[in-house]
């Protein structure tokens, strides 16, 4: 089947299937990158201003509590991104879709970065609160394990040359490792830990002032937008590496990019 015929076949199906092919998703991802980066910058600036300037000083923790406006969104995203990786890994195994495997691998570096930020900021919050930068607390330890799981997915992909084998291996690791996410979330309920419980819950009223809550939610939205933008950049890079250049050019409706042009003197075969 020609590349143009494959594109027409996807265009005739439902909306979600039109972008299931990596070549078809490539231009869409390119159009979304800049808006999400801009949104992340705007929301981040607003959230930091509210959190560090407008929000009142906490009566118990003083000014040190303000680290939560970075720490909590990063911790939330570290878990959400890993669950998203497990979701894409499940699709990759069940439906054998290339784009799903690429999405999983594109999310891993951002998830690792968010997990590192959560651990790093948590250490700075812990020093004035607990008197130490690190304790082998259940939640902190399970969050550290999550970072190792991210590194494991990244390292596993880099160690396997065959794309298909790498896709399956990373999908399995992401799915199995997802069991650690509920352990992180419920650890403060299951064990007697130093880490404080959730300040925001779907089943109870927030345990913080409204201004603090607004700042935290805006920063979380900024983290979402940033994570989406960086993942789209990486998945476009993976598509360029793994898909035929002519297919990407055809699906985007524009001229062939420079990487698809045959070098001088070649037959073009």
Question: Which features characterize this protein?
Answer:
269 residues, 10 helices, globular, mainly alpha, disordered N terminus
Summarize the structure.
The protein has helices at 3-11, 15-18, 22-54, 68-95, 98-130, 138-159, 163-177, 180-190, 210-242, 245-252. It is mainly alpha-helical.
Structure, described:
It is a single chain. With 269 residues, the protein is an all-alpha fold. It has one domain. Helix content is 73%, strand content 0%. The protein contains ten helices and no strands. It is globular. The two termini are 17 Å apart. The N terminus and C terminus are likely disordered.
What does the overall shape look like? globular
Whole-angstrom Rg: 22 Å
Please give the largest β-sheet: none
Number of helical stretches of at least 4 residues: 10
SSE order and pairing:
Elements: H1 3-11, H2 15-18, H3 22-54, H4 68-95, H5 98-130, H6 138-159, H7 163-177, H8 180-190, H9 210-242, H10 245-252
